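Pair request: fold both.
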Amino acid sequence: MAATDFTQWNTAWVADSTILHARLAAWEGQPTVALDTEFIRERTFWAQLALVQLAVPGEIVLADPLAPGICAVLGEFFARKGITWLMHAAGEDLQALRVSCGVVPEPLFDTQCAAALSGIGAGMSYQRLVEQVTGVALEKGETRSDWLRRPLSESQCRYAADDVRHLHAIHGDLSQRLAGLRRADWLAQECARQVANELDQQPEPRPHLALRSAQGLSGDGQWRLCRLLHWREVQARASDRPRTWILDNELAATLARLSAHERGEFDHALDNHPKAPRKLRESLWAVVADPLPVPADFVLASVQGPGDRDRLRRLQAAIKHESERLGLPEGVLASRRLLEARMQHGRWPADTARWRLAILEPLLAPLL
Protein backbone atom coordinates (compact mmCIF):
# COMPACT_ATOMS: atom_id res chain seq x y z
CA MET A 1 0.00 0.00 0.00
CA ALA A 2 1.48 3.34 -1.00
CA ALA A 3 1.97 6.25 1.38
CA THR A 4 -1.11 8.47 1.57
CA ASP A 5 -1.06 12.11 2.69
CA PHE A 6 -3.70 12.81 5.32
CA THR A 7 -3.24 16.34 6.67
CA GLN A 8 -0.96 19.32 6.53
CA TRP A 9 2.61 19.26 7.90
CA ASN A 10 3.59 16.49 5.46
CA THR A 11 1.93 13.71 7.43
CA ALA A 12 1.84 10.29 5.78
CA TRP A 13 0.35 6.90 6.53
CA VAL A 14 2.81 4.15 5.57
CA ALA A 15 1.92 0.46 5.43
CA ASP A 16 4.53 -0.60 2.86
CA SER A 17 7.90 -1.65 4.29
CA THR A 18 9.84 -0.55 1.19
CA ILE A 19 8.35 2.94 1.34
CA LEU A 20 8.97 3.15 5.08
CA HIS A 21 12.60 2.12 4.63
CA ALA A 22 13.09 4.84 2.01
CA ARG A 23 11.44 7.52 4.13
CA LEU A 24 13.49 6.68 7.22
CA ALA A 25 16.70 6.46 5.19
CA ALA A 26 16.08 10.08 4.20
CA TRP A 27 16.26 10.99 7.90
CA GLU A 28 19.92 10.01 8.07
CA GLY A 29 21.79 12.55 10.21
CA GLN A 30 18.74 13.71 12.17
CA PRO A 31 19.92 14.14 15.78
CA THR A 32 16.44 13.83 17.33
CA VAL A 33 13.33 11.90 16.31
CA ALA A 34 9.95 12.24 18.04
CA LEU A 35 8.37 8.87 18.79
CA ASP A 36 5.07 7.63 20.18
CA THR A 37 2.94 4.52 19.90
CA GLU A 38 -0.65 3.44 20.19
CA PHE A 39 -1.20 0.01 21.68
CA ILE A 40 -3.87 -2.21 23.21
CA ARG A 41 -3.35 -4.44 26.25
CA GLU A 42 -6.79 -4.96 27.74
CA ARG A 43 -6.83 -8.70 27.02
CA THR A 44 -3.12 -9.48 26.87
CA PHE A 45 -0.05 -9.43 29.10
CA TRP A 46 2.13 -7.90 26.42
CA ALA A 47 1.06 -4.65 24.79
CA GLN A 48 -0.22 -5.13 21.23
CA LEU A 49 1.48 -2.50 19.08
CA ALA A 50 -1.17 -0.86 16.88
CA LEU A 51 0.54 2.27 15.50
CA VAL A 52 3.97 3.91 15.55
CA GLN A 53 4.25 7.68 15.10
CA LEU A 54 7.59 9.19 14.08
CA ALA A 55 8.48 12.81 13.38
CA VAL A 56 11.33 15.08 12.43
CA PRO A 57 10.69 18.83 12.06
CA GLY A 58 8.13 19.29 9.30
CA GLU A 59 7.45 15.61 8.61
CA ILE A 60 5.38 12.94 10.36
CA VAL A 61 5.16 9.25 9.52
CA LEU A 62 2.35 7.05 10.82
CA ALA A 63 3.71 3.52 10.41
CA ASP A 64 1.32 0.56 10.47
CA PRO A 65 2.96 -2.24 12.53
CA LEU A 66 0.19 -4.63 11.50
CA ALA A 67 1.44 -4.58 7.90
CA PRO A 68 4.09 -7.14 6.78
CA GLY A 69 7.70 -6.09 7.23
CA ILE A 70 6.98 -2.78 9.01
CA CYS A 71 8.20 -3.88 12.46
CA ALA A 72 11.46 -5.21 10.97
CA VAL A 73 12.15 -1.85 9.30
CA LEU A 74 11.30 -0.03 12.52
CA GLY A 75 13.61 -2.31 14.50
CA GLU A 76 16.51 -1.44 12.21
CA PHE A 77 15.72 2.25 12.54
CA PHE A 78 15.49 2.14 16.34
CA ALA A 79 18.90 0.49 16.47
CA ARG A 80 20.47 3.37 14.51
CA LYS A 81 23.17 5.21 16.45
CA GLY A 82 23.33 8.95 16.95
CA ILE A 83 19.60 9.59 17.48
CA THR A 84 18.02 10.87 20.68
CA TRP A 85 14.42 9.65 20.91
CA LEU A 86 11.88 12.19 22.14
CA MET A 87 8.97 10.53 23.95
CA HIS A 88 6.40 11.44 26.59
CA ALA A 89 5.82 9.01 29.49
CA ALA A 90 7.70 6.34 27.59
CA GLY A 91 7.34 3.35 29.93
CA GLU A 92 4.64 1.25 28.25
CA ASP A 93 5.62 2.47 24.78
CA LEU A 94 9.09 1.01 25.32
CA GLN A 95 7.61 -2.36 26.18
CA ALA A 96 5.36 -2.34 23.12
CA LEU A 97 8.34 -1.52 20.88
CA ARG A 98 10.58 -4.15 22.47
CA VAL A 99 7.98 -6.88 22.09
CA SER A 100 7.04 -6.07 18.48
CA CYS A 101 10.27 -4.62 17.05
CA GLY A 102 12.87 -6.34 19.22
CA VAL A 103 14.58 -3.06 20.14
CA VAL A 104 14.32 -0.48 22.92
CA PRO A 105 15.22 2.92 21.40
CA GLU A 106 17.95 4.76 23.28
CA PRO A 107 19.11 7.27 24.37
CA LEU A 108 15.76 8.58 25.49
CA PHE A 109 14.53 12.08 26.31
CA ASP A 110 11.28 11.65 28.24
CA THR A 111 9.43 14.96 28.23
CA GLN A 112 7.18 14.04 31.16
CA CYS A 113 10.23 13.31 33.30
CA ALA A 114 11.99 16.42 31.99
CA ALA A 115 9.00 18.60 32.93
CA ALA A 116 9.13 17.25 36.47
CA LEU A 117 12.88 17.77 36.89
CA SER A 118 12.69 21.27 35.46
CA GLY A 119 10.03 22.23 38.00
CA ILE A 120 7.07 22.60 35.64
CA GLY A 121 5.00 19.79 37.13
CA ALA A 122 4.98 16.11 38.02
CA GLY A 123 3.14 13.49 35.97
CA MET A 124 1.96 16.03 33.41
CA SER A 125 -0.15 14.79 30.54
CA TYR A 126 1.10 15.40 27.03
CA GLN A 127 -1.86 17.65 26.23
CA ARG A 128 -1.25 19.81 29.28
CA LEU A 129 2.47 20.08 28.63
CA VAL A 130 1.93 21.02 24.98
CA GLU A 131 -0.47 23.77 25.99
CA GLN A 132 1.86 25.10 28.68
CA VAL A 133 4.95 25.16 26.45
CA THR A 134 3.47 26.00 23.03
CA GLY A 135 0.04 27.45 23.80
CA VAL A 136 -1.64 24.87 21.53
CA ALA A 137 -4.75 23.12 22.89
CA LEU A 138 -4.97 19.57 21.58
CA GLU A 139 -8.09 17.49 21.07
CA LYS A 140 -8.60 14.48 23.36
CA GLY A 141 -11.40 12.73 21.49
CA GLU A 142 -9.50 9.58 20.46
CA THR A 143 -7.95 8.73 23.84
CA ARG A 144 -9.95 5.49 24.14
CA SER A 145 -10.04 4.69 20.45
CA ASP A 146 -9.70 1.21 18.93
CA TRP A 147 -6.25 1.49 17.38
CA LEU A 148 -6.27 -2.05 15.99
CA ARG A 149 -9.09 -1.41 13.55
CA ARG A 150 -8.32 -0.71 9.91
CA PRO A 151 -8.62 1.67 8.28
CA LEU A 152 -8.05 4.30 10.96
CA SER A 153 -10.28 7.34 10.72
CA GLU A 154 -9.11 10.83 9.77
CA SER A 155 -9.72 11.84 13.38
CA GLN A 156 -7.52 9.03 14.70
CA CYS A 157 -4.72 9.94 12.31
CA ARG A 158 -4.84 13.63 13.30
CA TYR A 159 -4.78 12.68 16.98
CA ALA A 160 -1.87 10.30 16.45
CA ALA A 161 0.10 12.87 14.46
CA ASP A 162 -0.41 15.48 17.17
CA ASP A 163 1.21 13.11 19.67
CA VAL A 164 4.59 13.68 17.99
CA ARG A 165 4.08 17.02 16.24
CA HIS A 166 5.08 19.13 19.26
CA LEU A 167 7.79 16.99 20.86
CA HIS A 168 10.67 18.82 19.19
CA ALA A 169 9.41 22.19 20.44
CA ILE A 170 8.96 20.80 23.94
CA HIS A 171 12.40 19.21 23.80
CA GLY A 172 14.00 22.55 22.94
CA ASP A 173 12.22 24.35 25.77
CA LEU A 174 12.88 21.72 28.43
CA SER A 175 16.50 21.24 27.38
CA GLN A 176 17.15 24.93 28.00
CA ARG A 177 15.43 24.80 31.37
CA LEU A 178 17.40 21.73 32.47
CA ALA A 179 20.68 23.20 31.26
CA GLY A 180 20.01 26.39 33.22
CA LEU A 181 19.32 24.33 36.34
CA ARG A 182 22.28 22.01 35.66
CA ARG A 183 19.97 19.00 35.69
CA ALA A 184 20.47 17.58 32.22
CA ASP A 185 22.41 14.70 33.77
CA TRP A 186 19.54 14.04 36.17
CA LEU A 187 17.26 13.46 33.20
CA ALA A 188 19.85 11.31 31.43
CA GLN A 189 20.05 9.07 34.51
CA GLU A 190 16.28 8.76 34.82
CA CYS A 191 15.86 7.93 31.13
CA ALA A 192 18.71 5.42 31.20
CA ARG A 193 17.01 3.74 34.16
CA GLN A 194 13.76 3.41 32.17
CA VAL A 195 15.59 1.81 29.27
CA ALA A 196 17.58 -0.50 31.55
CA ASN A 197 14.44 -1.66 33.37
CA GLU A 198 12.74 -2.49 30.07
CA LEU A 199 15.78 -4.36 28.78
CA ASP A 200 16.15 -6.27 32.03
CA GLN A 201 12.61 -7.71 31.99
CA GLN A 202 13.13 -9.55 35.25
CA PRO A 203 9.95 -10.08 37.27
CA GLU A 204 9.59 -8.12 40.49
CA PRO A 205 11.44 -10.26 43.09
CA ARG A 206 9.12 -9.29 45.97
CA PRO A 207 5.66 -8.83 44.40
CA HIS A 208 3.88 -9.47 47.69
CA LEU A 209 5.06 -6.12 49.05
CA ALA A 210 2.70 -4.32 46.66
CA LEU A 211 -0.37 -6.10 48.10
CA ARG A 212 -1.90 -4.68 51.26
CA SER A 213 -3.38 -8.09 52.03
CA ALA A 214 0.14 -9.45 52.57
CA GLN A 215 0.41 -7.51 55.82
CA GLY A 216 -2.19 -9.75 57.46
CA LEU A 217 -0.35 -12.97 56.62
CA SER A 218 2.20 -14.87 58.66
CA GLY A 219 5.77 -15.18 57.46
CA ASP A 220 4.97 -18.55 55.88
CA GLY A 221 1.85 -17.06 54.30
CA GLN A 222 3.74 -14.13 52.82
CA TRP A 223 6.38 -16.46 51.39
CA ARG A 224 3.62 -18.61 49.88
CA LEU A 225 1.93 -15.49 48.47
CA CYS A 226 5.21 -14.37 46.94
CA ARG A 227 5.62 -17.75 45.23
CA LEU A 228 2.00 -17.71 44.03
CA LEU A 229 2.55 -14.31 42.45
CA HIS A 230 5.74 -15.54 40.78
CA TRP A 231 3.78 -18.52 39.43
CA ARG A 232 1.14 -16.11 38.14
CA GLU A 233 3.79 -14.01 36.40
CA VAL A 234 5.20 -17.03 34.57
CA GLN A 235 1.72 -18.16 33.47
CA ALA A 236 0.70 -14.66 32.37
CA ARG A 237 3.80 -14.15 30.26
CA ALA A 238 3.60 -17.59 28.68
CA SER A 239 -0.11 -17.30 27.82
CA ASP A 240 -0.01 -13.55 27.04
CA ARG A 241 -2.94 -12.85 29.36
CA PRO A 242 -3.32 -10.19 32.08
CA ARG A 243 -2.04 -11.23 35.49
CA THR A 244 -5.41 -10.95 37.21
CA TRP A 245 -6.99 -13.13 34.51
CA ILE A 246 -4.66 -15.89 35.67
CA LEU A 247 -5.07 -15.38 39.42
CA ASP A 248 -6.62 -12.34 41.03
CA ASN A 249 -5.11 -10.78 44.13
CA GLU A 250 -7.97 -11.73 46.45
CA LEU A 251 -7.80 -15.42 45.56
CA ALA A 252 -3.99 -15.37 45.77
CA ALA A 253 -4.19 -14.07 49.35
CA THR A 254 -6.81 -16.68 50.23
CA LEU A 255 -4.65 -19.52 48.91
CA ALA A 256 -1.58 -18.13 50.67
CA ARG A 257 -3.28 -18.78 54.01
CA LEU A 258 -3.51 -22.51 53.27
CA SER A 259 -0.94 -25.23 53.80
CA ALA A 260 -0.04 -28.58 52.26
CA HIS A 261 -2.55 -30.29 54.58
CA GLU A 262 -5.55 -28.33 53.34
CA ARG A 263 -6.25 -29.71 49.87
CA GLY A 264 -9.99 -29.76 50.53
CA GLU A 265 -10.04 -26.07 51.41
CA PHE A 266 -7.91 -25.35 48.36
CA ASP A 267 -10.39 -27.10 46.05
CA HIS A 268 -13.29 -25.36 47.78
CA ALA A 269 -11.65 -21.94 47.26
CA LEU A 270 -11.10 -22.61 43.55
CA ASP A 271 -14.54 -24.09 42.95
CA ASN A 272 -16.29 -21.14 44.59
CA HIS A 273 -14.32 -18.34 42.98
CA PRO A 274 -15.83 -17.18 39.66
CA LYS A 275 -12.48 -16.42 38.04
CA ALA A 276 -10.35 -19.22 39.47
CA PRO A 277 -7.85 -20.93 37.12
CA ARG A 278 -9.43 -24.35 37.47
CA LYS A 279 -7.64 -25.77 34.43
CA LEU A 280 -4.35 -25.03 36.20
CA ARG A 281 -5.53 -26.58 39.46
CA GLU A 282 -2.71 -29.09 39.91
CA SER A 283 0.02 -26.65 38.94
CA LEU A 284 -1.38 -24.12 41.38
CA TRP A 285 -1.72 -26.69 44.16
CA ALA A 286 1.93 -27.63 43.72
CA VAL A 287 2.86 -24.07 44.67
CA VAL A 288 0.60 -24.04 47.73
CA ALA A 289 1.72 -27.49 48.89
CA ASP A 290 5.44 -26.93 48.35
CA PRO A 291 7.06 -26.98 51.83
CA LEU A 292 9.92 -24.66 50.89
CA PRO A 293 11.18 -22.89 54.04
CA VAL A 294 11.12 -19.11 54.25
CA PRO A 295 14.55 -17.78 53.15
CA ALA A 296 16.54 -15.96 55.81
CA ASP A 297 16.72 -12.82 53.65
CA PHE A 298 13.02 -12.79 52.76
CA VAL A 299 11.50 -9.32 53.29
CA LEU A 300 8.16 -9.28 55.06
CA ALA A 301 5.40 -6.78 54.42
CA SER A 302 4.80 -5.30 57.85
CA VAL A 303 2.07 -3.11 59.25
CA GLN A 304 3.46 0.29 60.16
CA GLY A 305 3.28 1.10 63.83
CA PRO A 306 3.06 4.58 65.37
CA GLY A 307 6.84 4.86 65.45
CA ASP A 308 7.15 4.01 61.75
CA ARG A 309 4.44 6.50 60.81
CA ASP A 310 6.08 9.24 62.85
CA ARG A 311 9.43 8.57 61.22
CA LEU A 312 7.87 8.55 57.76
CA ARG A 313 6.25 11.92 58.47
CA ARG A 314 9.62 13.34 59.52
CA LEU A 315 11.21 12.05 56.33
CA GLN A 316 8.40 13.49 54.22
CA ALA A 317 8.72 16.86 55.94
CA ALA A 318 12.44 16.93 55.18
CA ILE A 319 11.78 15.95 51.57
CA LYS A 320 9.11 18.64 51.20
CA HIS A 321 11.45 21.34 52.49
CA GLU A 322 14.28 20.22 50.21
CA SER A 323 11.94 19.96 47.20
CA GLU A 324 10.75 23.51 47.76
CA ARG A 325 14.35 24.69 47.98
CA LEU A 326 15.19 22.93 44.69
CA GLY A 327 11.97 23.99 42.97
CA LEU A 328 10.89 20.39 42.40
CA PRO A 329 7.22 19.37 42.35
CA GLU A 330 5.96 17.27 45.22
CA GLY A 331 6.80 13.58 44.88
CA VAL A 332 9.59 14.02 42.33
CA LEU A 333 12.54 13.87 44.72
CA ALA A 334 11.25 10.87 46.65
CA SER A 335 7.88 9.15 46.60
CA ARG A 336 6.28 7.68 49.71
CA ARG A 337 6.91 4.21 48.28
CA LEU A 338 10.62 4.94 47.88
CA LEU A 339 10.87 6.19 51.47
CA GLU A 340 9.01 3.15 52.79
CA ALA A 341 11.36 0.87 50.86
CA ARG A 342 14.37 2.61 52.41
CA MET A 343 12.88 2.33 55.91
CA GLN A 344 11.91 -1.31 55.54
CA HIS A 345 14.97 -2.70 53.77
CA GLY A 346 17.65 -0.46 55.24
CA ARG A 347 18.88 0.51 51.78
CA TRP A 348 17.70 2.33 48.68
CA PRO A 349 16.34 0.23 45.78
CA ALA A 350 19.09 -0.81 43.38
CA ASP A 351 17.75 1.29 40.50
CA THR A 352 17.61 4.56 42.47
CA ALA A 353 19.31 7.23 40.34
CA ARG A 354 22.66 8.61 41.51
CA TRP A 355 21.40 12.19 41.59
CA ARG A 356 18.67 11.19 44.05
CA LEU A 357 21.09 9.34 46.30
CA ALA A 358 23.45 12.33 46.36
CA ILE A 359 20.61 14.46 47.76
CA LEU A 360 18.65 11.97 49.84
CA GLU A 361 21.32 10.09 51.74
CA PRO A 362 22.97 13.05 53.50
CA LEU A 363 19.56 14.70 53.98
CA LEU A 364 17.82 11.71 55.53
CA ALA A 365 20.66 9.75 57.17
CA PRO A 366 20.28 11.60 60.50
CA LEU A 367 16.55 10.77 60.53
CA LEU A 368 17.03 7.15 59.51
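--- second member of the pair ---
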Amino acid sequence: MKIKILYEDSNILAIDKPSGISVHGDGRSKDKTVADWVLKNYPKIKNVGEPEFFEDKGIKVEIKRPGIVHRLDRETSGVMLLAKNKKAFEFLKSQFVNREIKKTYVAIVSGSVRHDRGVINKPIGRSPRDFRRYLAGRGVRGEIRQAITEYKVLKRFTVSQTKYTYLEIRPKTGRTHQIRVHMKYLNHPVVCDSLYNPDNPCPKGLSRMGLHAKSIEFKNLKGETIKVESSIPKEFKEVVR
Protein backbone atom coordinates (compact mmCIF):
# COMPACT_ATOMS: atom_id res chain seq x y z
CA MET A 1 0.00 0.00 0.00
CA LYS A 2 1.39 3.39 -1.02
CA ILE A 3 0.37 6.40 1.04
CA LYS A 4 1.85 9.83 0.46
CA ILE A 5 3.16 11.80 3.45
CA LEU A 6 2.11 15.46 3.26
CA TYR A 7 3.66 16.73 6.52
CA GLU A 8 5.80 15.25 9.27
CA ASP A 9 7.56 16.43 12.39
CA SER A 10 8.67 14.54 15.51
CA ASN A 11 5.12 14.48 16.89
CA ILE A 12 2.59 14.68 14.07
CA LEU A 13 2.10 13.03 10.70
CA ALA A 14 -0.27 14.13 7.92
CA ILE A 15 -1.00 11.66 5.13
CA ASP A 16 -2.90 11.70 1.85
CA LYS A 17 -5.45 8.90 2.30
CA PRO A 18 -6.57 7.27 -0.95
CA SER A 19 -10.23 6.61 -1.66
CA GLY A 20 -11.31 3.01 -1.10
CA ILE A 21 -9.15 2.35 1.96
CA SER A 22 -10.60 2.18 5.48
CA VAL A 23 -8.86 4.04 8.28
CA HIS A 24 -8.90 0.97 10.53
CA GLY A 25 -10.33 -2.54 10.50
CA ASP A 26 -13.72 -3.69 11.70
CA GLY A 27 -12.60 -7.02 13.07
CA ARG A 28 -14.09 -8.87 10.09
CA SER A 29 -12.57 -7.63 6.84
CA LYS A 30 -9.03 -8.64 5.91
CA ASP A 31 -8.52 -5.64 3.61
CA LYS A 32 -5.46 -3.53 4.37
CA THR A 33 -6.15 -0.28 6.22
CA VAL A 34 -4.42 2.96 7.13
CA ALA A 35 -3.82 1.44 10.56
CA ASP A 36 -1.95 -1.47 8.94
CA TRP A 37 0.22 1.02 7.03
CA VAL A 38 0.97 2.91 10.25
CA LEU A 39 1.96 -0.25 12.12
CA LYS A 40 4.27 -1.31 9.30
CA ASN A 41 5.96 2.04 8.76
CA TYR A 42 5.76 3.56 12.25
CA PRO A 43 5.75 0.62 14.69
CA LYS A 44 6.48 2.92 17.64
CA ILE A 45 2.98 4.40 17.24
CA LYS A 46 1.42 1.01 18.08
CA ASN A 47 0.15 1.98 21.54
CA VAL A 48 -0.72 5.62 20.79
CA GLY A 49 -4.40 6.47 20.71
CA GLU A 50 -7.62 4.86 21.86
CA PRO A 51 -8.70 1.40 20.64
CA GLU A 52 -12.30 0.57 19.79
CA PHE A 53 -14.16 -2.47 21.05
CA PHE A 54 -17.12 -4.44 19.75
CA GLU A 55 -18.74 -7.76 20.49
CA ASP A 56 -18.69 -10.62 17.97
CA LYS A 57 -20.73 -13.66 19.00
CA GLY A 58 -20.40 -12.65 22.61
CA ILE A 59 -16.64 -12.17 22.42
CA LYS A 60 -15.15 -8.72 23.03
CA VAL A 61 -12.85 -7.77 20.14
CA GLU A 62 -10.33 -4.91 20.23
CA ILE A 63 -9.60 -2.85 17.12
CA LYS A 64 -6.25 -1.11 17.03
CA ARG A 65 -6.27 2.58 16.06
CA PRO A 66 -2.57 3.54 16.21
CA GLY A 67 -2.16 7.32 16.26
CA ILE A 68 -5.61 7.88 14.78
CA VAL A 69 -7.08 11.14 16.09
CA HIS A 70 -9.88 11.50 13.51
CA ARG A 71 -11.24 9.49 10.59
CA LEU A 72 -12.22 9.79 6.98
CA ASP A 73 -14.85 7.51 5.49
CA ARG A 74 -13.56 4.61 3.40
CA GLU A 75 -14.47 6.25 0.06
CA THR A 76 -13.32 9.74 1.07
CA SER A 77 -9.80 10.72 0.06
CA GLY A 78 -7.52 13.44 1.32
CA VAL A 79 -5.52 14.81 4.20
CA MET A 80 -5.64 13.05 7.56
CA LEU A 81 -3.70 13.63 10.80
CA LEU A 82 -1.94 11.02 12.92
CA ALA A 83 -0.26 11.43 16.31
CA LYS A 84 3.19 9.88 16.73
CA ASN A 85 3.13 9.87 20.54
CA LYS A 86 0.64 10.13 23.42
CA LYS A 87 1.38 13.80 24.11
CA ALA A 88 0.65 14.70 20.48
CA PHE A 89 -2.50 12.55 20.52
CA GLU A 90 -3.95 14.40 23.50
CA PHE A 91 -2.84 17.76 22.05
CA LEU A 92 -4.57 17.16 18.71
CA LYS A 93 -7.60 15.56 20.33
CA SER A 94 -8.08 18.70 22.42
CA GLN A 95 -8.02 20.85 19.27
CA PHE A 96 -10.68 18.68 17.64
CA VAL A 97 -12.89 18.73 20.76
CA ASN A 98 -12.60 22.52 21.03
CA ARG A 99 -13.25 22.98 17.28
CA GLU A 100 -9.93 24.72 16.77
CA ILE A 101 -8.94 22.63 13.77
CA LYS A 102 -10.10 23.96 10.41
CA LYS A 103 -11.05 21.40 7.77
CA THR A 104 -11.92 22.08 4.14
CA TYR A 105 -13.42 19.54 1.73
CA VAL A 106 -14.51 19.63 -1.88
CA ALA A 107 -17.51 17.67 -3.06
CA ILE A 108 -19.44 16.96 -6.22
CA VAL A 109 -23.15 16.69 -5.46
CA SER A 110 -26.26 15.82 -7.41
CA GLY A 111 -28.41 18.65 -8.75
CA SER A 112 -27.92 22.40 -9.00
CA VAL A 113 -27.51 23.91 -5.53
CA ARG A 114 -29.64 27.06 -5.43
CA HIS A 115 -27.71 29.36 -3.08
CA ASP A 116 -24.07 30.32 -3.64
CA ARG A 117 -23.35 29.97 0.07
CA GLY A 118 -25.13 28.37 3.00
CA VAL A 119 -24.94 26.99 6.51
CA ILE A 120 -26.61 23.71 7.47
CA ASN A 121 -27.30 23.66 11.21
CA LYS A 122 -29.15 20.39 11.76
CA PRO A 123 -28.42 17.83 14.49
CA ILE A 124 -27.57 14.31 13.42
CA GLY A 125 -28.71 10.97 14.84
CA ARG A 126 -29.13 7.38 13.70
CA SER A 127 -31.50 6.39 10.94
CA PRO A 128 -34.42 4.30 12.22
CA ARG A 129 -34.41 2.16 9.06
CA ASP A 130 -30.73 1.39 8.41
CA PHE A 131 -28.15 1.00 11.19
CA ARG A 132 -25.37 2.01 8.76
CA ARG A 133 -26.91 5.40 8.04
CA TYR A 134 -27.26 8.67 9.93
CA LEU A 135 -30.01 11.22 9.52
CA ALA A 136 -30.60 14.96 9.95
CA GLY A 137 -34.05 16.34 10.70
CA ARG A 138 -37.16 14.36 11.53
CA GLY A 139 -37.13 10.70 12.42
CA VAL A 140 -33.67 10.42 13.96
CA ARG A 141 -33.21 7.98 16.82
CA GLY A 142 -30.67 7.43 19.57
CA GLU A 143 -28.27 10.18 20.62
CA ILE A 144 -28.77 13.39 18.65
CA ARG A 145 -25.70 15.59 18.29
CA GLN A 146 -25.27 19.15 17.04
CA ALA A 147 -23.83 19.38 13.53
CA ILE A 148 -22.93 22.49 11.54
CA THR A 149 -21.68 22.57 7.95
CA GLU A 150 -20.83 25.60 5.80
CA TYR A 151 -20.72 25.35 2.01
CA LYS A 152 -19.84 27.51 -0.99
CA VAL A 153 -20.63 26.82 -4.63
CA LEU A 154 -17.51 26.64 -6.77
CA LYS A 155 -19.20 25.64 -10.01
CA ARG A 156 -22.53 24.42 -11.38
CA PHE A 157 -22.22 22.16 -14.40
CA THR A 158 -24.04 19.62 -16.54
CA VAL A 159 -22.90 16.19 -17.73
CA SER A 160 -25.07 14.26 -20.21
CA GLN A 161 -28.03 16.54 -19.44
CA THR A 162 -27.73 15.86 -15.70
CA LYS A 163 -27.00 18.76 -13.35
CA TYR A 164 -24.28 18.71 -10.69
CA THR A 165 -22.64 21.20 -8.32
CA TYR A 166 -19.02 21.43 -7.21
CA LEU A 167 -18.78 22.66 -3.62
CA GLU A 168 -16.23 23.77 -1.07
CA ILE A 169 -17.38 22.55 2.35
CA ARG A 170 -16.21 23.46 5.84
CA PRO A 171 -17.62 21.28 8.63
CA LYS A 172 -17.65 23.09 11.97
CA THR A 173 -18.33 19.88 13.88
CA GLY A 174 -17.04 16.36 13.30
CA ARG A 175 -19.97 13.96 13.28
CA THR A 176 -19.92 10.59 11.54
CA HIS A 177 -20.91 11.00 7.86
CA GLN A 178 -21.67 14.66 8.59
CA ILE A 179 -21.11 16.12 5.11
CA ARG A 180 -22.85 13.21 3.42
CA VAL A 181 -25.86 13.45 5.75
CA HIS A 182 -26.17 17.23 5.52
CA MET A 183 -25.98 17.24 1.73
CA LYS A 184 -28.61 14.50 1.66
CA TYR A 185 -30.74 16.72 3.91
CA LEU A 186 -30.46 19.51 1.29
CA ASN A 187 -31.58 17.03 -1.40
CA HIS A 188 -28.14 17.38 -3.02
CA PRO A 189 -26.37 14.19 -1.92
CA VAL A 190 -22.74 13.52 -2.73
CA VAL A 191 -22.41 11.72 -6.07
CA CYS A 192 -21.45 8.04 -6.23
CA ASP A 193 -22.39 7.62 -2.56
CA SER A 194 -23.90 4.13 -2.41
CA LEU A 195 -25.29 4.70 1.09
CA TYR A 196 -26.92 8.13 0.77
CA ASN A 197 -27.30 8.53 -2.99
CA PRO A 198 -27.84 5.07 -4.50
CA ASP A 199 -30.43 6.05 -7.12
CA ASN A 200 -28.84 9.04 -8.86
CA PRO A 201 -26.24 8.57 -11.61
CA CYS A 202 -22.51 9.13 -11.18
CA PRO A 203 -21.03 11.69 -13.58
CA LYS A 204 -19.25 10.01 -16.45
CA GLY A 205 -15.59 9.50 -15.57
CA LEU A 206 -16.10 9.24 -11.81
CA SER A 207 -16.18 5.80 -10.19
CA ARG A 208 -15.68 6.78 -6.54
CA MET A 209 -17.55 8.92 -4.04
CA GLY A 210 -17.25 12.61 -4.84
CA LEU A 211 -15.83 13.78 -1.51
CA HIS A 212 -12.23 14.85 -0.83
CA ALA A 213 -10.56 16.31 2.27
CA LYS A 214 -8.66 19.18 0.67
CA SER A 215 -6.92 20.77 3.65
CA ILE A 216 -6.55 20.82 7.41
CA GLU A 217 -5.19 23.57 9.65
CA PHE A 218 -3.93 22.86 13.18
CA LYS A 219 -1.30 23.84 15.72
CA ASN A 220 1.78 21.69 16.25
CA LEU A 221 3.32 21.18 19.68
CA LYS A 222 5.48 24.27 19.21
CA GLY A 223 2.35 26.37 18.91
CA GLU A 224 2.89 27.00 15.19
CA THR A 225 -0.14 27.05 12.90
CA ILE A 226 0.28 24.44 10.19
CA LYS A 227 -1.89 24.10 7.08
CA VAL A 228 -1.59 20.89 5.08
CA GLU A 229 -3.20 20.49 1.66
CA SER A 230 -4.00 17.51 -0.52
CA SER A 231 -4.19 17.97 -4.29
CA ILE A 232 -7.62 17.79 -5.89
CA PRO A 233 -8.02 14.30 -7.40
CA LYS A 234 -7.45 14.15 -11.15
CA GLU A 235 -10.83 12.53 -11.70
CA PHE A 236 -12.57 15.45 -9.97
CA LYS A 237 -10.84 17.95 -12.26
CA GLU A 238 -11.80 15.98 -15.35
CA VAL A 239 -15.46 15.80 -14.35
CA VAL A 240 -15.79 19.44 -13.29
CA ARG A 241 -13.86 21.09 -16.15
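Observation on the second member. The domain at 4-240 is CATH 3.30.2350.10 (Pseudouridine synthase).
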